[in-house]
From TrEMBL:
Location of the protein in the cell: Cell membrane
Protein name: Penicillin-binding protein
Glycosyl transferase family domain mapped to chain residues: 72-245
Main location: membrane
A GO molecular-function descriptor: penicillin binding
Involved pathway(s): Cell wall biogenesis; peptidoglycan biosynthesis
The entry's keywords: Carboxypeptidase, Cell membrane, Cell shape, Cell wall biogenesis/degradation, Glycosyltransferase, Hydrolase, Membrane, Multifunctional enzyme, Peptidoglycan synthesis, Protease, Transferase, Transmembrane, Transmembrane helix
Record has Protease as a keyword: yes
Amino acid sequence: MATKKNNQSKSDKDINYYKKKFWRVFAYSLLGVLAFFLFASWGLFGAMPSFEDLENPDSNLATEIISSDGVVLGKYFKTNRSQLKYSDLPKNLVDALVATEDARFYEHSGIDGRGTLRAAFSLGTNGGASTLTQQLAKQLFHKGGSSFLPFRIVQKIKEWIIAIRLERQYTKNEILAMYCNVYDFGNYAVGVSSAAQTYFSKDPKDLTIDESAILVGMFNNSSLYNPLRNPVGVKNRRDVVLGQMVKAKMITESQKEKYKALPITLKFKLESHREGIATYFREYLRDYMKKWVAENKKPDGSDYDIYKDGLKIYTTIDSRMQTYAEEAVAAHMQNLQQQFYIDQKNNKNAPFVNITQAETDRIMMQAMKNSVRWAQMKEMDKSEDDIIASFKVKTKMRVFTWKGERDTTMTPMDSIRYYKHFLQSGLMSMEPQTGAIKAWVGGINYKYFQYDHVGQGARQVGSTFKPFVYATAIEELNMSPCDSILDGPFMIHKGRHHVTEDWEPRNSDYRYRGMVTLKQALAASINTVSAKLIDRTSPEAVVELTKKLGVKTEIPVQPSIALGAVDITVEDMVAAYSTFANQGVYVKPQFLSRIENKSGEVIYEPIPESHDVLNKDIAFAVIKLLQGVTESGSGVRLRTQGGGSGDNRWTGYPYMFTNPIAGKTGTTQNQSDGWFMGMVPNLVTGVWVGCEDRSARFKSLTYGQGATAALPVWGYYMKKCYADKDLQISKSEFERPANLSIKVDCYQRPAIVKDTTQTEQNTDEFEL
């Protein structure tokens, strides 16, 4: 018995010993784990996000450029990420995401205990344990994981801690939205918003169930399940997501089978600074924002970063009008370019006309020095002779054509001459009453031609300058559109108005019409009348008025400016003409409505700038003069069924407009520049057409004049704008001032309808 008792006592003692040891190990382990968690939360194993970090995670958001009608025109980014609210996410995508990535998302508080135990007991072979909140924590504060097990364990614990803090800080819907905003889908698309645009060219709210399933499948591994590189794998992964949605009773089995039968259909569009809509305007805006951030600081005094601060820049550009303008420019320039090639067919020095070999060499050398190739070789310390020699070696390259990009082989020197052939264009459209710019087309293709012919390039304006002379005459000399003046030989002698030799302007058709009204003179763009008017008013008075109209370029104080020997930008010309349409009040062109930070707070709102230039009566008198151009002058093509010379290059012709239109064509030195300024009561649009080099031009006036080169762009653009009734472009009369003191309604004999096509030229002798 004693032996039995001793054995039992010893056994009890052993059990108690092991019990104590177990609980001691358990307590120490628990304390160790708790200490581990505590130390991790204190940041002893690496920095942890602060409360402020959780409140404002560094989400590296792209700045969005938004049109007046709510369309994202483009973005400035280093990482193409746009922020969505939960309400912006389609329900089918949220359902697919929760069903696939975290079925108990709405039940846990950041850590899924059941999933964690399952993963631990199966050593990760039966699915991972990361919740959506943990994945968000990893995306925001950790990024990639470590391959070293102890470090990976530390990292996982830190993710748990951050996940719990995120759950305390944000609602479930906010966490879902944040996760959808930070995931990298590849091809520079970060977040669902960018991914939807990149892969499907859609806003997220327009995604179909199968498209949402594709994106959710990419959350698993966007590199592996990339629709461009692995369509089979993506289709299989999409079908898995659809299966999970059935399992969660979010869709039916029949719906799953229907979507599984669909192929992977993409509408891939890589978002780029050089492609998309309003590219020239976006670059102009980017340059403006560089100055803006230098002058406008954050509340803490630091600088805004347009590439990561998620600003929203609301512009005055209307995406519909911008699209119509780009379509009009592209359609007409492609059409006119064909004629330019025909025109240059037998020109051995094409596209240059009537210049010496020395002048040609100078142009080509300057183009070489402005090229990327020259800059790169200079950085490599190559000699100038070596660089020039490299321009004569054939190389493979991709070039722009109006039928799309084309791979070819040519020397860089030949490519320079090839690109010199292309006709360029600039178009700007603006509301005269508000100064709001609605469309901005700086060229034919920003990827290949970065020079902006709206805000950057000032070109000679030809006859489009004449209304400034007439406006000065009406103001200074109390003349009216109905006053008569003699169209006859006229000379300004040496010494008068600073001329250094006798100046005798002549009309383009070499004939004189005798007595004409001012309205008839401007409609026919008679040079002698413009010269007589500037002689009477003085060049100084014309220059002064032109400056008040917002023209910023230097204007020579010479009588020859009456014929348009002045370089002005399209932007300034549109603003100046808008003053006439706005009853004599100049309004500075405005392209911004407001700027918001990523939280939606307005941080900048521009103050409109305006000043009085002319009284209402004078402004209306100029409008009536300009209406004469489209009633009987070179702009009559907008109304007639027969267009005259150059019919086959009348893009969008016939226009057959019947509403009031004020406008003016212009053609400059040897057809180097073609212009048309067109106005209706609530929209003023200016169009310029010409080659990059002034010596590259049409040989004749038939196609080189503004009525053929530029006016068709305006006509085609306005046809599109009028067809879109939502734009509400006016077809009404221009507002007539009450008690008008200037006679504007002139008696005219009934006219015989004939071809009124005018030819234009701007030299010291010719201009129309």
